[in-house]
Amino acid sequence: MKLLTAAQTRALDQATVEAQGITSLELMERAATACTLWLLDELQLAFSTEIHVLCGPGNNGGDGLAVARQLHTAGYAPQVWLLPADKHSADFLLNRQQLPQAIRCQELSARRLPMLPAGALVLDALFGTGLTRPLEGLPATIVKHLNQTEATVVAVDMPSGLLADSPQPAGSAIVRAHHTLSFELPKLAFLMPRNADFVGEWTVLPIGLDQSFIHNTDVDNYFVDAASLAGRLPRRARFSHKGTFGHALLLAGSYGKLGAAVLAARACLRGGVGLLTVRTPAVGYTVLQMSVPEAMALPDPSHDFVTELPELQPYAAVAMGPGLGQEVSSAEVLRQLLRQAGSRRALVLDADALNLLSTHRELLGKLPPDTVLTPHLKEFERLTGEPARDDYHRLEQLRAFCREHRCYCVLKGAYTALGTPHGPMYFNSTGNPGMSTGGSGDVLTGLLLALRADQRLSPLDAALLAVYAHGRAGDLAAAETGEAGLIAGDLVQFIGPALRELEG
């Protein structure tokens, strides 16, 4: 699913009007109908609900006027509040003319702001994606007033004051919506951590926008859902064998951190790898043999840490990092791995392998093409050596990092972002806050290792499928345990069902 810029979104509306032979007013009516149906179906509004519709002078305000008219037709009594302006869009004016006289309209001012009791519904239709600068003056006063109430706020297309394509200056006046209704596609702004309190729960409402325009429009960012991954995970042929799905090597664990190796190994096996060998320090041999009998254990000569790299010839993919520790000897193993892996052997680096890269920065230049890195935000900051100024700057850093080092980088978090060597970025749709628990990243590493060992998959497809299935496993697990009760081991149990949903 593509994430369009604000300018591309406006062009999409115009392309739809031209391709379908409709007027912009008819398209606005479609959008309003989608909003009205969502309000009635999802919020189950009582006819006694106090409804306030706040309308700006542009097409976003026109949407609000049309929704108010439709709610009135459905038997509700919305109150409309108009932001004074010298100029209004043509479709706003046409919808203003169509508004029944029975709907009460008032003009907003600093002295006339709506009283919004708890239980009231506010439809925010002040400003949409066309906003290019922070709000000030009366609009800012209105937004601050709205944010101080206990009313339920639903934003049409965008919370007013939120910029679609750029970071917000500190202290900007932005509506704190409980729900945001986006037309046809989500917005990149919805996926930024600092915007979460403004966007609330967001929903995409299809309104029949021109699909050929969307298909032919080049974008830098994608939102990955199940439909986006259709056909990327092939079914297993009847005469497949364990060699078909690759032999993987996992370098993980140290004294006191063997659980990370166990979690990653179990996830790799549940991810469908043909064969798995785990290199752990000698202290982990018995633990691994008893905890993961399906894997082959290859103990290191050292008792507490991994100190030697085994011969790589048998392996299609290698992962290194979970619970590894940051000993000097482990850094040397990483150095050897980068030198010997070559371009034909897939690499996945996580956790302490990333910390070693940050400490020994000269190794970044030795990453084989298409290596997959899986940092969380702090690990990524250490990799770049530069704190991000804001969420958008971090995405620029991610894009530049992947291009420079010819790698894939999984920046973990809500809407995990996958950076690619060629520039496009992919945001994941699955997962939940319950996955913010120790070991979750180790599970992702194991799953990535399994899919990178599968020679049927491209590096991009393997990364997209792993990130999505990891989050989906978390969603399936949370449905059983609740988010608070979710532990990393639960994710492993649901990898199979998550992958099964994607097969075909």
UniProtKB/TrEMBL annotation:
AMP binds at residues 412-416, 441. Homotetramer. This is Bifunctional NAD(P)H-hydrate repair enzyme. SUPFAM superfamilies: Ribokinase-like, YjeF N-terminal domain-like. Residues 225-502 form the YjeF C-terminal domain. InterPro entries: Carbohydrate_kinase_pred_CS (IPR017953), CARKD (IPR000631), Nnr (IPR030677), Ribokinase-like (IPR029056), YjeF_N_dom (IPR004443), YjeF_N_dom_sf (IPR036652). Binds 1 potassium ion per subunit.
